[in-house]
Each structure stands twice: as structure tokens, then as C-alpha cells.
Specification:
Elements: H1 2-14, H2 21-35, H3 43-50, E1 54-56, E2 67-69, E3 78-82, H4 90-102, H5 106-128, H6 131-148, H7 153-164, E4 168-171, E5 177-181, H8 188-197, E6 201-203
Antiparallel strand pairs: 1-2, 3-5, 3-6, 4-5
Length: about 220
């Protein structure tokens, strides 16, 4: 999706076309789902188009505009860890899950509803400045994901490394990477050393506010 977004931005600049962020996200999603036949949803494209921290409520199918900007300063200290060897393609990872959703699999339906409630809880924790509860919510997210989604041994190891060092972690995509948080954030040196010793890459991201809706 990042490659598609970059290509569309380049084309818009070259042809001097005004491409608002909502339209950019929608076109990127259509390119993947209709032209490339890749199972995908709007979330990644919305974030990439707006290039900042967002909360999303995508209850209406096909609607890429139900989101709002969040203040990055409300977040606890974050980290990213990933497997340099890569993860499973998102289309492969989501194919079975999409079929189960269409079949109204009871476990999938119940878990998706739990995800929705967890998002609301997480936003409330951020508003209150309760980073400890927010980190607990991240761990619950990972547990919910495991209940309906095949988690690879490497992904599981990355989450376990975080937990062993007092941090929380969840998958940041279809596999191959985790995003995590640590209350206080004063022990990242040991955490980074643990990840790198296990063969994983590590980085501390600096989230920023979303742009004003124009494609940049």
C-alpha cells in the first residue's frame, strides 16, 4: 500500500492534479482490491495518505472518512521491532479470515466485536493519560489476534521479548513486525539489545500529527 500511495502521489504531482488525502486513500485501496485482487481494508492507506496519528471508526463499509486526528503527545513511549527476513504477504494472511467473516464464523464475529470495544477503551485510556492501562490493552489486542489469526513463531517471539522486559506489544500488520509501548520508557536500551541479539531490527518511532487532508 505504501508503494501504491507513493506512485499515486508522484502521478498527481507530474500531472498537476489536486489529490486530497481521502481520495488518495480510496484510490490506493481500489488499486489493491480491484486491480491487484489483494484482500485489503482502508486503514493503512488512510494513515499513509494523512501521514500522522489517527483514530478510526470504519463501521460503514467502503467509507474512508470516518477518522479523526490524535495528539501524539498522549501516547506512551513506543517502539517498533521487525524481522529483517520479512513476513507473510497480507493477502495470504487475510484470505482465510475474510472467508470466515463472510461465513459469519461465530468466533470471528465475537472477536471483531471485542476489537471494536478495545479500541474505545484504548482511546479512553489515552485521554486519561493512563499509559499502564493502554499497554494492557495492547497485550489484549495481541491475545485477541491469536484467537482467530495464525501467528508465526517469530511474531510470537517478538511479543514475548517485549513482555519479558516490561513492555507491551501487538502485531503492527499481517506479520513480521510488532509495535509496542513501555510505561516510563527508561529501559529501551536493554529492550533494543534483546531484540537485536535475537536477530530482529529495532527502532523508536516519533509519531506526528496528521496533515490537513491534502496529499503531500
Amino acid at each position: 500500500s505504501a508503494i501504491v500511495i507513493a506512485a499515486l502521489r508522484s502521478l498527481a504531482r507530474w500531472f498537476e492534479v489536486d489529490l486530497p488525502a481521502d481520495r488518495l486513500a480510496k484510490l490506493a485501496l481500489l488499486a489493491e482490491t480491484e486491480d491487484l485482487n489483494i484482500p485489503a481494508g482502508p486503514m493503512d492507506r488512510i494513515v499513509q495518505a494523512h501521514e500522522g496519528l489517527l483514530a478510526m471508526d470504519l463501521a460503514e463499509p467502503g467509507n474512508v472518512s470516518t477518522y479523526w486526528s490524535l495528539d501524539p503527545d498522549t501516547l506512551p513511549p513506543l517502539f517498533l521491532a521487525w524481522d529483517p527476513r520479512g513476513g507473510k504477504p497480507s493477502g495470504d494472511a487475510h484470505a482465510d479470515l475474510k472467508q470466515r467473516w463472510r461465513a459469519r464464523d461465530p468466533r470471528v464475529m465475537t472477536t471483531i466485536e471485542a476489537f471494536r470495544e478495545l479500541v474505545d477503551e484504548g482511546l479512553t485510556f489515552l485521554e486519561r493519560g493512563d499509559h499502564a492501562k493502554f499497554c494492557e490493552a495492547m497485550n489484549r489486542n495481541f491475545t485477541l489476534r491469536q484467537s482467530i489469526f495464525s501467528v508465526s513463531p517469530n511474531d510470537l517471539e517478538m511479543a514475548e521479548i517485549a513482555n519479558q522486559h516490561g513492555a507491551s506489544a501487538k502485531l503492527s500488520g499481517s506479520g513480521g513486525a510488532v509495535v509496542g509501548a513501555m510505561v516510563g520508557g527508561d529501559d529501551f536500551a536493554r529492550l533494543e539489545e534483546a531484540y537485536r541479539s535475537a536477530g530482529y531490527a529495532f527502532r523508536r518511532p516519533r509519531p506526528k500529527r496528521a496533515n490537513d487532508g491534502k496529499a503531500q
